[in-house]
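#struct-help
A.M.: can someone run this one for me? Single chain, 469 residues.
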Amino acid sequence: MAKKPEQINKWAKLDGKKQVVYATFYSMGSKFLTYLLILVFANLYTQEEYGLGSFIYNIRNILMIFVFVGLPEALIPLLIKRKKVESIVKAIIWATVSVTLICLILALLPGVLQFWILPLAITFPLVMITNIGTAILRSREQYKQTYTAGFYSMIITLISAYLLRGFGSLAVVSAYSLGNLCAFLIVAKPVKKEIIVMLDEAIQYRGKIGNNLREYILFALGIALAGSSLTFMYWITSTVLGVNGNFSGIAKFGVASAITSILTIIPISLSMIILTKASKLNKIREDSLLVRATRISFFITLIGAILLTTFMPLILKIFFPKYLGIEIYTAILTFGIVCFASSYVIYSYHIGIMNLRKIVIPILIGLAIHLIISLLFAIKFGLGGILITQSAIQLGTLIYIANSQSIKRITLAAVVSLILFWVAYRSIIFGLLATIAIIPLAIITKIIDRQDLNIIKNTFYEIFLKKNH
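D.P.: on it. Structure tokens below:
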């Protein structure tokens, strides 16, 4: 029993910079497997099969947001501050059980729906427990299980998608569900005692739920909006396309978003550390860790986005020949993710200090505008129009959030970077020249400084070279 905590603590003892790097490499492995998964879906499934399966799976994911109300992020600050969570967990348990029972009943009814609902219903409570386990681990600064769970669950999903390829859309849903099962087993194992105690205390809780639950729901909904803003936008896009019967558009969007999602690795890895640090310190000086993390996130993501846009035609030609022609969609998406790279770090800071007032309103307005415009003009302007709206909203949100955090240079850089995206989209050679020019331009305009570059360089040196001496 003594060895397991020791192995976990080995990861926890790493400083923040090193944890970000290790988390980044785990995430890169997961993204690589995601690309292999998309290759399977793109080449072994029809666009309609993949599009319909993704549409159904996304509905389950949207439902999870409202049932799980902010898990795991909402629990992390509460656990760190040692606040009572029994009433909150009890409410989540009852909501999860209710939804699961309804889905199981629907699955037993005759009709086509039973094939789609059953694997999702079975794994629904497991995902809830996985999120609770993730919150416990991250509150202790133990991030390894979270990222290894993502990595190995993608392996299971990939294998399942290949083996079940003859079952159409059902295979898509089942593959993802089996991945959920794998993540549950990995995350729950090291903290199974803590999970059991937390669930037992919640079930045994007999006090009033009302006030605590209302406060938590308001806080958790804010976290859900902030932490999953990009996911919400993607789900809105996918759902609107599905409602209009454009399953081919969903498939194209699925491939484009999967390819470009590699750009989210850096902001998500940095945000993981920012959230935990902010929860412990209550406030991070804006001229130190928060500002530096925001700058680094924007800088690295911008370089990756320009490179990805530059080589997108080649990537599609080699790996996704059926999807040639979606280059413009990926270029639009990558610009939005560059804006998201800075916004997400700031979101995580506010989640950590449990102060969401500055970020919830612009996010809500942005999502509402995206939904309304998408519903009104989806048929006329198609996927391209929806994605332009989405990226414009992400830029507007960054402008508001960054200004409120005194990180104004990043907003100007985001607007100017539109030129770089246009150049990269038009020509591989010009795209490479634009990538090379980013570093000196960023230093001159003070988007990044030499100390930031030294931090990046020294962290990699300590991990890959120093330990070998």
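A.M.: thanks! Residues 228-469 form one domain.
D.P.: also worth noting: Residues 88 and 214 are 9 Å apart (CA to CA).
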